[in-house]
């Protein structure tokens, strides 16, 4: 791992969580009322533990969002608005990937955001990191633009030099690249010693080409939480069983196996016959808590218990996310944590 830079783990101290408020010009237009309720619940949960920084497309949207949050009795001292145009609200993939510099400052990695391989318009989202930097949101931060398509949801780090990702996603974005060359570049850009690749795992209704943050996540340098499926009649069973076996075979940098925490499987959630990607692995870690996507399923309580075991020193806070999976993502996908010290006062 490069000595001058370090990619912090999500469980390290944070200054804020960055989100973007949905509006009628985003893909949420058809179900805006439903998804706004999720955003209000999310901001309420975040602001119990740290600040929420909310991107708004214009002054009118800020006025509206502020009124909705005040009516929900949210502590507005813990909310900051920043004006920025955006195509949609998936800030895990369009927001900054932050490295810490040895001098205490930060490097914001601004990879290309292509709308998950050109599936959707993303030109404004691709400019978001620069817009936020120019708006003065960040303290002592430099931007490094990298002409390479990579989304934040495609990677997870243990903060100590190990990166976890999926071959399907990176190969889909860069079909001409070998695994060896991708490993070298990811390790260099993200200041990692090694890259662990998963070859199995997918969710129906996922249009990210198997982002790792819907499948498997570090829960500490020696632990991995992952989405399992124990229903042999389900279409995901064989693939998620194979992924579970892959994860069990992974080793820490010291050669020891990881402690494993398989998450339960929700009953199929359909929308006009379309299976939605209801993953419990798409949780968000904040200061002192883990915000867990809840789907109104009996497995919600079981997932909460697993996360409580994986994160024994943190409160597990369910956030209703059924509205989010209509657009094929969940809680982690719409958020990006800002490490402690990054947010400018």
UniProtKB/TrEMBL annotation:
GO MF annotations, alphabetized: agmatine deiminase activity; protein-arginine deiminase activity
GO biological process, one term: putrescine biosynthetic process
Gene3D superfamilies assigned to the protein according to its UniProt record, in alphabetical order: L-arginine/glycine Amidinotransferase, Chain A
Entry keywords, A to Z: Hydrolase
Domain of life: Bacteria
SUPFAM superfamilies xrefs: Pentein
Protein name from the UniProt record: Agmatine deiminase
Pfam family, one: PAD_porph
InterPro entries: Peptidyl-Arg-deiminase_porph
